[in-house]
Task: structure prediction
Amino acid sequence: MYSQQELSRFFEEKLREERFDGNPHQLYDPIQYMLDLGGKRLRPVLTLMGYGLFGDDLEKALPQAIAIELFHNFTLIHDDIMDNAPVRRGKTTVYKKWDSNTAILSGDTLFALAYQYAQKADSDILGEVLSVFSRTAIEVCEGQQMDLEFEKKNDVSVEEYIEMIRLKTGVLFAASLKIGSLIARASKEDSETLYKFGEVIGLGFQLQDDYLDTFGDEKIFGKKTGGDIVTNKKTFLYLKALEKADDTTRKQLIDLYSKTGDDEEKIGTVKNIFRELKVDNDNIELINQYFNESISFLDKLNASDEKKQELRKVAENMIKREK
Amino acid sequence: MYSQQELSRFFEEKLREERFDGNPHQLYDPIQYMLDLGGKRLRPVLTLMGYGLFGDDLEKALPQAIAIELFHNFTLIHDDIMDNAPVRRGKTTVYKKWDSNTAILSGDTLFALAYQYAQKADSDILGEVLSVFSRTAIEVCEGQQMDLEFEKKNDVSVEEYIEMIRLKTGVLFAASLKIGSLIARASKEDSETLYKFGEVIGLGFQLQDDYLDTFGDEKIFGKKTGGDIVTNKKTFLYLKALEKADDTTRKQLIDLYSKTGDDEEKIGTVKNIFRELKVDNDNIELINQYFNESISFLDKLNASDEKKQELRKVAENMIKREK
Result:
């Protein structure tokens, strides 16, 4: 079983061999640009790992790994339009570098290209692979819609937030692993266990993301913290704080989150409230809970301990990372 | 073999049995709204006809017919954002009724839903069906990109225009027919011939659309003519006129097409130029040429004359219609 780093390098090389340079080039340039931005390639690595648990010829899972990465990048291109995000991975986003119309249409094309890779699966499993792929695509859209709605909604519960990140983030990790295992003809039981493993590490991953955005060490995190507070994002930290706060603090928080603008004082005040209410601990505790849950799924898998060990490391990297 | 009208009614009924009412409802409402706007359902009818030439159980082709119609509606939702179109089929467009973000995301969801229907094909032909489906989706995006670029481009040739409408319109008619025939296990040769038939009737359909937009009888056409002239759309009529005009008239035309605004005088002047240069006749002649070409493909098909007769009628309706 290869390590995460080895698989990431393997995937990166293979992805670079694929060229997305069709015509009209105005349609394909943004696609190649987006893919060249790089990233951790976590999802395709999970596909390769899901395959590697049960199969020996990694190349066989490659089209699916590429499909997953293309799909993920399609969602990023469209999300950046919806979120008015000017920067991604330190570079100008597609819709800012070109325009919204180009971003819509290049995204659509990328979605179809993702299917072109997904449908390379052998015919005996093609139906099942695509069924996972399409259901996941729909769920990711549902998650993004919930995320957009939460911006305007004032009574979001912690449970609703978890359901949103499950759909927006968890199911794609889950599907990445499951599809990999399907290519290796894993049993129905194993591929379903792997799905659940991916779903909870996805939740842990997103909660860690939220935590680092507020409490990360800027030197290690690599970017300014407090972004979610500045943009009034209703994360677990905020929603849990509302739940635990007394009336006065709750009003103060709601008031702070009704203002816009980049404000160091606001960040400091909110972080203090979070700390006083100990929701930073709650956040870490929930992450640990998901991590433990993921390990219990891993234990159930019918694969060698050595192979499962690599997957455990990935879960640790994803959930306990500092950047 | 059922007639176009019978199949259209059959499809409409079946489509209404499918409900697109998931959660969050803000994501699904625009989808149901768009599908409820109706339309001629030409493309799914072609899928059913493509099937009907070689098979007897129409229900078998229904998921593919629905997939094609969902895909078509997805492209309309996104195109309306890109074209700033406020009205479609007499109703407010999705992006105007809701907003751009909703239209992007509901469109994406509809694209994935289309695949959910497409992938219901039996496993022995699933790979081929999806290969046609995805390639077509990509080509339709390429066509839309060319269409957007033509707005700003000053040296579009007639050939480039034909290639644009082939991609934006022709290939989807072609794929609709071919996929239907694949479901009925038509021979490779027949399904390819049917594809070519669909491609040329698609070209004829779009050229007739252009012609009616300028020279249609408003009483029969059902809407005001001259829309393409008002928006300076580079149609066959305009591009062919530029080709045939002397320098003075060419300058006059380019000048007229550099102005915006709803102007009866402009419409009148441009129509007169088109008539003087006889590009209205050229347009009709080209449509007839495509119609004749479509009939030659029909002749080659290994299916009963009675069945082919219904397809000939559809081609006539599509190309020689007055509205």
User: Anything to note?
Assistant: The CA atoms of residues 247 and 317 of chain A lie 38 Å apart. The mean pLDDT of chain A is 95.
